[in-house]
TrEMBL record:
The keyword ATP-binding does not apply. One of its GO terms (molecular function) is phosphoglycolate phosphatase activity. This is Putative hydrolase. InterPro entries: HAD-like_hydrolase_sf, HAD-like_sf, HAD-SF_hydro_IA, HAD_2, HAD_sf, PGP-like_dom2. Keywords: Hydrolase. It holds the Pfam family HAD_2. NCBIfam families: HAD-SF-IA-v1 (TIGR01549), HAD-SF-IA-v3 (TIGR01509). It comes from Tetragenococcus halophilus subsp. halophilus. GO terms for biological process: DNA repair. The lineage of its organism: Bacteria, Bacillati, Bacillota, Bacilli, Lactobacillales.
Length: 209
């Protein structure tokens, strides 16, 4: 029996990636940056730092300037995280809590944004630990975020189940020797072949713990 479930946020708790793509496209257009749609799709599950590093690998000054500008742009771009909320999440959290399963968050997103998502949907109190990719030198697919989460929970990989959606997130969890359930995306056709399980609803986690 699993003792804990670790949740990704974007694409799992909220279906936000299409909105993020739209936000990035608006920023790119405003700053005269040309990014093909397939490249946009590639960045699903990534973070802003890694995105600009890959877009401008040889131009540190350019990517630093754009990264700062994008952080400011995000502050003024509205996001309705209640509208994006996965309706299966709350009953899933309630049932896991009734089974005394511990719960944590490990997301590539900025910590402030993670808290906002959890708070506006009134689910923050379910999670004993909230971890952001911003806390590490490299975010997913680097496994450090999951290794750190395990160490803070004082659990072994075999004690935990991860729910992810993106290729980057699945790879990060697998590299940390964790078992992964991949939630099928309603917005993208994502390669989830590295996951141990593929699920249509987060409530299917209850059959895996």
């Amino acid at each position: 029996m699993r003792r804990a479930v670790i949740f990704d946020v974007d694409g799992v708790i909220v279906f936000s990636e299409k909105a993020y793509q739209k936000r990035r496209a608006a920023f790119f257009e405003q700053n005269n940056v040309s990014v093909a749609q397939e490249v946009q799709d590639y960045f699903v599950g990534s973070n802003a730092y890694d995105m600009f590093e890959q877009l401008f690998p040889e131009d540190i000054d350019k990517r630093t300037e754009l990264l700062q500008a994008y952080k400011e742009f995000r502050q003024h771009y509205p996001m309705d995280y209640q509208e994006m909320f996965n309706p299966d999440i709350l009953p899933t959290l309630d049932k896991l809590a009734s089974k005394n399963i511990r719960m944590a968050v490990a997301s590539s997103g900025p910590l402030e944004n993670i808290y906002r998502i959890l708070e506006v949907n009134q689910i923050k109190e379910y999670f004993e630990l909230i971890t952001s990719g911003d806390m590490f030198a490299r975010s997913k697919p680097n496994p450090e975020i999951y290794q750190y989460t395990l160490s803070r929970l004082k659990l072994r990989p075999s004690d935990c189940l991860v729910i992810e959606d993106s290729t980057f997130g699945i790879e990060a969890a697998r590299r940390a020797n964790l078992t992964v359930a991949a939630l099928k995306s309603p917005q993208f056709n994502i390669d989830q072949s590295q996951a141990n399980y593929q699920i249509e609803s987060s409530q299917q986690l209850l059959d895996l713990v």
